[in-house]
Each structure stands twice: as structure tokens, then as C-alpha cells.
From TrEMBL:
This is TspO/MBR family protein. The keyword Mitochondrion does not apply. Coiled coil: none annotated. Belongs to the TspO/BZRP family. The lineage of its organism: Bacteria, Bacillati, Actinomycetota, Actinomycetes, Micrococcales. The chain crosses the membrane at residues 21-47, 67-88, 100-117, 123-144, 156-182, 194-214, 219-235, 247-266. It is found in: Membrane. The keyword Amino-acid biosynthesis does not apply. It holds the Pfam family TspO_MBR. Keywords: Membrane, Transmembrane, Transmembrane helix. InterPro entries: TspO/MBR-related_sf, TspO_MBR. It is a multi-pass membrane protein. It comes from Microbacterium aquimaris.
């Protein structure tokens, strides 16, 4: 016969788990609603026009082309799929979901906050918000890296969706920081803009390479990061500010990220078969 103390403890644990699941689901809906506002589809100002237009595709040399932002539809769909999947009873007390759950909710809320900050024309505040978002996603990635998904569904909706989210936010953070520097009148200490943009893209490539080898060649973050950097190349060859040097640097960065991911994946799979 169970004691009253144990019964209360079990009830409290169930309540906390259910609360976590519901908050993640609500947070995913909140992020999607904020995205609609940020798109300007019904109301609100499109992100590229908000905050003085400094986040537009032609604002800086490392701003991805407009087409790059289509990836948000995939990311939001993936995160909503994760939110629905994790709210199922089977995941309520899953140790992996318990470890990442509150971090996922925080990432979705921060995403909505970032859009709200930009809508309020507070460009300077957008950088710390997206920096915290990047930290949160990195934390989730570390947890996922050290734990294994139990099936293919979890691999897709958890590791896949969050990986895409992380990869895109890396390049978005780079573009956000560069936009703020440009808005404040930073002139690069006399160094040519194309050189600065190449350095920034080299840093993004280094992060992608490090992520590939540390993460065992995970495809999702490499795919979204490469997507974002590739659209930097597209924008610099086809839009203003025109900069073939930056475009070439972006292409080289994509090639390095993809190559590192393939090599890391092959190494990881070979070790797993031993």
C-alpha cells in the first residue's frame, strides 16, 4: 500500500510533466503567431522593413537573400510537429524530453520576443535576444548529442527540427550583429567591407565545421547553416550591395561546411559499426 507522501509526490511529478508539455505546445503556437506578425501577412511590419530596414537582404554584405527566409516555414512546421509529438502521453516522463523540454519552450518564447523587439524598432535589443536564443539552442544540441533518440520519429521531429533551428540561428545571429554594426556607423577600421564580410563568413564556416565534427556529422544544422550562407552568395551576386568577393567567400564557406559534415558523418558511422 503506497504512502500518502508517495502518492502526493507521484501526482506532483505528473502535474509538472503535463505542465511542461502544455507550455511547449503553447510556446510553439506563440512563435508561429509572432512569425505571422513578422511576415506582415495580416498585420504588423515585415521584418525586412522593420527596425529601419537594417535586417533586409540588401542591408549588409552578409545578409542572406530574401529566399533564404523560406526556411522558417520548415522550421516552424518541424517545431510544431515536435510540440505535438512531445505532448503525447508516451513522452510525458521520457528522460530526454524532460531534459530538453524547458529549453525548447525558452527557445520558442525567445523567438517570439525577438520578432516583437524588431517590430518595436529596437534593433539594438535584438542582438542580446538572439544571442540568448543561440545559447539556448546550443544547450539543447549538447543534450541531444549526449542522448540517443529512441526511434526514427524522434530523430526527425526532435533532432531534425531543432538541428535546423540551430543552424539557421547561427547565420541569423551573424547577420543581426553585422546589421547593428552597420546601423551604428561602424566603418571597419579602414579595412575593406569585402574583407570584413569574408572574415565573418570564415567564422561562420569555422563554427559549422566544429559543429560537424563535434556533433558526429549531424545533417540538420549543417543543412540550414549552409542554406543561409548559400543565400548570402546569391544575394551578393544578384542584389545590392553587389560583392563578388563576398559571394565567392560564401560559396567556399558552404563547400567547407558540407565537406566537414560528410567526413564527420562517415567517421561517426564507421565508429558505430565497430
Amino acid at each position: 500500500m503506497s504512502s500518502p507522501t508517495k502518492t502526493r509526490s507521484d501526482h506532483s511529478t505528473r502535474t509538472q510533466a503535463l505542465t511542461r508539455q502544455v507550455i511547449i505546445l503553447v510556446s510553439s503556437v506563440l512563435a508561429i503567431v509572432a512569425a505571422f506578425i513578422g511576415s506582415g501577412a495580416f498585420f504588423g511590419t515585415p521584418i525586412q522593413e522593420a527596425a529601419g530596414g537594417f535586417l533586409d537582404s540588401d542591408s549588409t554584405l552578409v545578409a542572406p537573400g530574401t529566399g533564404a527566409f523560406r526556411i522558417w516555414s520548415v522550421i516552424y512546421t518541424g517545431m510544431l510537429a515536435y510540440a505535438i509529438w512531445q505532448v503525447l502521453p508516451a513522452q510525458r516522463h521520457d528522460a530526454r524530453q524532460e531534459r530538453i523540454g524547458w529549453w525548447v519552450a525558452a527557445s520558442l518564447i525567445l523567438n517570439a520576443v525577438w520578432i516583437g523587439v524588431v517590430q518595436a524598432d529596437l534593433l539594438w535589443l535584438s542582438l542580446p535576444v538572439i544571442a540568448v536564443l543561440l545559447f539556448v539552442l546550443c544547450r539543447i544540441f549538447v543534450i541531444l548529442r549526449h542522448t540517443a533518440p529512441k526511434n526514427i520519429v524522434e530523430t526527425i521531429v526532435a533532432d531534425g527540427a531543432i538541428g535546423l533551428y540551430l543552424g539557421w540561428v547561427i547565420i541569423a545571429t551573424v547577420a543581426n550583429a553585422t546589421a547593428i554594426l552597420y546601423a551604428t556607423g561602424f566603418e571597419g577600421f579602414g579595412i575593406a567591407p569585402a574583407v570584413w564580410s569574408s572574415i565573418v563568413l570564415a567564422a561562420a564556416a569555422a563554427i559549422g565545421i566544429a559543429l560537424a565534427f563535434w556533433g558526429g556529422g549531424r545533417l540538420a544544422p549543417a543543412a540550414s547553416l549552409s542554406w543561409g550562407v548559400a543565400w548570402v552568395a546569391v544575394a551578393r551576386f544578384t542584389d545590392e550591395p553587389y560583392s563578388p568577393e563576398t559571394g565567392i567567400a560564401a560559396i567556399v564557406a558552404v563547400v567547407l561546411i558540407v565537406a566537414a559534415t560528410v567526413i564527420a558523418r562517415v567517421r561517426h558511422d564507421m565508429r558505430a559499426r565497430r
